[in-house]
Specification:
The structure holds two protein chains of two kinds.
Chain A lengths: L3 H9 L5 E5 L5 H10 L2 E6 L2 H10 L3 E3 L16 E5 L8 H11 L2 E7 L4 H10 L23 H10 L3 E8 L7 H5 L1 H4 L2 E7 L4
Parallel strand pairs in A: 1-2, 1-4, 2-3, 4-5
Antiparallel strand pairs in A: 5-7, 6-7
Chain B lengths: L14 E5 L3 E2 L5 E2 L2 E8 L9 E5 L26 E2 L4 E2 L4 E5 L31 H15 L6 E5 L1 H12 L7 E4 L7 H15 L9 H4 L4 H15 L2 H8 L17 H16 L2 H13 L10 H4 L7 E6 L7 H13 L4 E6 L13 H17 L7
Parallel strand pairs in B: 5-8, 5-9, 6-7, 9-10, 10-11, 11-12
Antiparallel strand pairs in B: 1-4, 2-3, 4-8
Helix pairs in contact in B: 1-2, 3-5, 3-8, 5-7
The chains are: A alpha/beta, B alpha/beta.
Amino acid sequence: MMRADLQLIHDWVPQGARVLDLGCGDGTLLAALAQAKGVTGYGLEIDPDGITACLARGVNVIEQNLDEGLSNFEDDACDLVVMTQALQALRRPDRMLDEMLRVAGECIITFPNFAYWRHRVHLGLRGYMPVSKSLPHAWYDTPNIHLSTFNDFEHLCRDKGLIIVDRAVGVGGHEGHWTSRLWPNLFGEIAIFRVARGEG
Amino acid sequence: MTELPQDSVGLVTPETAHFDDPLPLACGRTLPAYDLVYETYGTLNAERTNAILICHALSGHHHAAGYHSLDERKPGWWDAHIGPGKSIDTDRFFVVSVNNLGGCHGSTGPNTPNPETGEPWGPDFPMMTVLDWVHSQARLADRLGIERFAAVVGGSLGGMQVLQWTLSYPERIAHAAVIAATPKLSAQNIAFNEVARQAIRSDPDFHDGHYAEHGTLPRRGLKLARMVGHITYLSEDAMGSKFGRDLRSEDFNFGYDVEFQVESYLRYQGDTFSTSFDANTYLLMTKALDYFDPAAARGGDLAAALAPASCPFLVVSFSSDWRFPPSRSKELANALIRAGKPVSYVNIDSPHGHDAFLLPEPRYQAVFAAFMARVAHDQGLEDRR
């Protein structure tokens, strides 16, 4: 059973695409895409167990820290760059977005929506930093140093002149519920964006 | 020893394959006939799809795993990774390990007779290159009935042979593991090799390589060459933690005999090596290292040079290796990415410097085993254990 955001990405990826998966984990997505859609490409990962799992699956994995950029990938090296649940852990998410859209014309990004209503309850009413299924860490040991919301990310894309091709929400198993479709910034636990380079 | 370890390939006996068809060499000369000494571990399956070729490094040889006798103190040089249940699992794979031409462990080389004179080749043995070795290994594969290797695997200079395999015989190699290697030597690498060569060549017992005729051996030169080489195989930290500034005796002797433990260790390494290795072989092997540069023919464009390669690669480096540091392995991995080839790159955190590729280390073993499990899967070998 694939994570909900991965399932959606799976549906978005075109047949035979060259895909770069940033923070590919154990290679589940790339392995599934290779099998179902003849996708080729590479995953970048730094977690040793994830890397070993990728190797055993036959997923091409490169041990590489995303904060060091993607300089080893040429312009338009891929058709699509995917980054699931890693944006918020990067030192400069904005620069990574530039890098992703240099390497491919289109990218898919998923991240925990900090404006999710449960998070708002934590912070707004109870006065604590949110801890949830999508944000499981305590404030002092979290790798998530750049939390953002649906609205924040849309704002960034607008500022950069990027095209938001598609947008979806993931809520632990209930993605697509009418409330989260109508008010994603409030009811969407996981933000899923499909972004393309702006014209010119 | 009365009993061999459970995970050992056990007692092994080297074999010799003689070849009468001349081998044209990169240097322009031709080896008229030659012997290759090799060992095998495991069993070649009926479909001949489970063969692994092991390529050795500068001072390596065919004895990669197991024991030649119960009295042998140490097993083969890569025993940590070859055996039943090990990364290169001999319950699944048929492993071929060959002593390269120009070596001094049985294959035709400077210390074997030149058929024209009946005397040892000595310095007249032709200069070998990585490409020549790969061609000779392919002929051995022909002899053993192996059309395509499930994987060709090697560390250091061995890794360069693996890389050359993917370029010269892409249809005969299904997977490549290039470990602690580099696509070409740096100026510093060549400089260290040159110091080693000068140490040998300036030994009065060297006699321009004709020491056999003079009944001498350039032991001092070879010892020095090994000492300087050995320094580059270890990391500063590994040397520091092993020896620090420890002294052999209580206090300084204010002389030039061995005082620091590290001196004693280096001298011991050099002495042992100088009695077991051939100086002409050492010279020739260092030149093969220096010459290796598959990108040169493509104006230095490594990605372009890698065009013929078609198999999945595993590229492994070790964090404290300063002889062929991680940046050199990354250079190879990135060129493979640029060329659109299937590649995985892993940098193993290890304090052991270049020598780490020989040693067992949990993450290295996990990575190596995972890749080899994939090799077995791709070759359809999984259900046969």
